């Protein structure tokens, strides 16, 4: 699976109708939707689709046809995100009507192409990267083991955060790839340490 590093744009035009696509990390999805409605007051539709992990790593998906014919816009856009295996992402396609009806088939093609074009832009600018399932663990560690623990964690690409300095120990949080973190927790440098969470 892939994640998007920053927002990108794409688009498509069919029989005078313009489809402006905005692909964004899911954390910015709702804010972007509000911004686009303000920036494009003459647009007739704001179609959207999203995919993200919840706190249990279940994939949550949504789409909205925004008054386009059912199945003609939101679901085809979501299917592109699924096909590209992009997660924690949303896409909003702003449509300006060009005067001619496109029919359901034409709309499916247009919304699919607009979403694909935004993804193509992301690929061109190397803004898609592999998704890493990240977790964190909290430890209480004596000061005399802190340096070794930090060294071993960072050597494996894990991030260490010092949360609280106590009298004889430090509460730290170690974050990173779930599999690497599990292996790290079985290393000698953290034997007999108190795992808080």
UniProtKB/TrEMBL annotation:
Q: Report domain Impact N-terminal positions.
A: 15-119
Question: What GO CC annotations are associated with the protein?
Answer: cytoplasm
Superkingdom of the organism of origin? Bacteria
A Gene Ontology biological process noted in the UniProt record is: regulation of translational initiation
The organism's lineage? Bacteria, Pseudomonadati, Campylobacterota, Epsilonproteobacteria, Campylobacterales
Q: Which Pfam families match?
A: Impact_N
Q: Transmembrane segments in this chain: where?
A: none
Per the record, the similarity remark reads:
Belongs to the IMPACT family.
* PANTHER family cross-referenced by the UniProt entry: IMPACT FAMILY MEMBER YIGZ, IMPACT-RELATED
Name-wise, this protein is Impact N-terminal domain-containing protein
What InterPro entries has UniProt attached to this entry?
A: Impact, Impact_N, Impact_N_sf, Ribosomal_Su5_D2-typ_SF
